[in-house]
Amino acid sequence: MARMPTVDLPPIDDDEDVGPFTNSEEHVELPPISQLPDKILSPTDNEQAIKLPPIFQLPDEILMLIFEINAHESRGQMSHRISAVCKHWRTVALTCASLWVYLDYRRRDSIPTLLARSQQINGLDVYIGSHFIQPEECYNVLSQLTRIQALVVQLNVTSIDPVLNAVPLVSAPLLQRLTVEALPGSGPIPTLSGLAHLEAPKLRYLELKQCRINWDWRFIRSTSFTHFHIRCKEYNPPPSLNRLLDILQNSRQLELLVLTNAIPLSQTVGRIVSLPNLQHLTIAGRVMDCYSFLRQLNIPPNATLQLRCETIVTIAIFQNQILPLIHAQCQQYYLRSLTLTWSGWQSCKFTIAGYTKPSPAPSDHPRFKVALTVNDETADDKRKTDIIGAICSRIRFVLERLEVDCAWQESPGFWVCMRPWLGEVRELTMRVMPTGLAKALSEDAALVLETESPTPNPDTNASHFLLPKLETIHILGVDFPPDLDAFLFDLRFAQEVRERRGSVLNEVKIKQCKFVPADFKRKVWEFVEIVQWDGEGAIAVAEEEEEEEDAYSQMRGSMNEIMLFDSFAQHARR
């Protein structure tokens, strides 16, 4: 950057009385440096002052093009900051109306200025999301509805209706995106009455969340959507099945459909709606409502389906209602992701997500995710396993990655019951410390030693293990077990036996642990080659052995991960 020119003033004599500084009218301030005569600047300073970098000397038409591209790409508050590069850029930016089309009410003091700078250009992006906004403050912007291209309103439940009623919202010829979301709070559910007479022929992206929906509104009935996202309160009246199918019939280009608590009541109509461009479908509601709704849709095979249902689950209900629902949609697909969550004795929530074509690429392995939580300690583990088994026996998949989150996984019996579907699992993710898994692996290894010959063939005996192809265990956000010695003994014994029988557990990763015991480091050294940790819990280890210098103390990583590599596996590779 060029050096700022300096002004040489005559020196002041030491004996001269300059008097005290005063703000009186007799005091004369020096003019700004830009207003000083050129003769007080040396020729060298004048040359340096005009030698600016090339970026500051761009022609105005190039700058205007840069501003327009930036406004189109960023479409946000960050687009305004490009005008602060230098004084020349600022001057040109003030004449570029398209740079000021994004109006953010989190800085509502600048809204009148931004409206003036945008002149009469069309395509405004308006975001209203202040917790302290008053309805009258939105009048200036909402009165420009004919110029608005995207309108996002995210306010608390008591502010949405007054804001939308601040000005009549009737004609929005350019509106392409509309998002209204009621943030959590106390108060009546917004009715969105201000949108009742809205006409938006170009509307393609609609999101209405936690609001009361009137399915007969004109802009919902007569619009062709590409994104249709409705998330209602549970007591919001759902539409009739015919009404919803009419909306979808008009939206042949629909790419995303999300309906949460907005599924029509269970009924049957003699029509099928095809959605050839659908890429993602998420529906949540009662089992039979979802089932009857899915029967009316023709979904392309490469679409991703996410289904969340709530019901009272017994084996009979599961086999007679839930399984037909699953089977109807995925009999020609491979299941990629399945989530089951039990929140009580019989209350069940389950998710089916991610289908793919019948011939997935080798790198696109199917995924089977089991998330089970049981609050009742007397719940029957066998009953839950029977349900999982019923799914596994009805749907084709190769289970290679398994994620488990359940209180009853700590029982070794759970893993024994799951044995028939664990033969190909290579990666296991758990959200509790795998004491039950370690115990099951240890007992299984002892059984293998007892039942097999002293000199077994690794090629034939590896498959006899529980999880014979398991390579990696990820343990997320857990507390270490109180009986750490038993856990480490079981895990070490299982690995020793597996190594001798040709089935080696390569690594265990413990991430985001809540507490690391002080004696953990010295105990895992017996069978762990590398220890890396970080996190608040690991401080307990470091405080006890501050003076001990070793190679391991230099391997501390990212304060969020402990990685345990089995030394026996390392020797086996060598």
Automatic annotation (TrEMBL):
<dbReference type="InterPro" id="IPR032675">
    <property type="entry name" value="LRR_dom_sf"/>
</dbReference>
<dbReference type="InterPro" id="IPR036047">
    <property type="entry name" value="F-box-like_dom_sf"/>
</dbReference>
<feature type="domain" description="F-box">
    <location>
        <begin position="56"/>
        <end position="104"/>
    </location>
</feature>
<feature type="region of interest" description="Disordered">
    <location>
        <begin position="1"/>
        <end position="28"/>
    </location>
</feature>
<dbReference type="InterPro" id="IPR001810">
    <property type="entry name" value="F-box_dom"/>
</dbReference>
<protein>
    <recommendedName>
        <fullName>F-box domain-containing protein</fullName>
    </recommendedName>
</protein>
<dbReference type="Pfam" id="PF12937">
    <property type="entry name" value="F-box-like"/>
</dbReference>
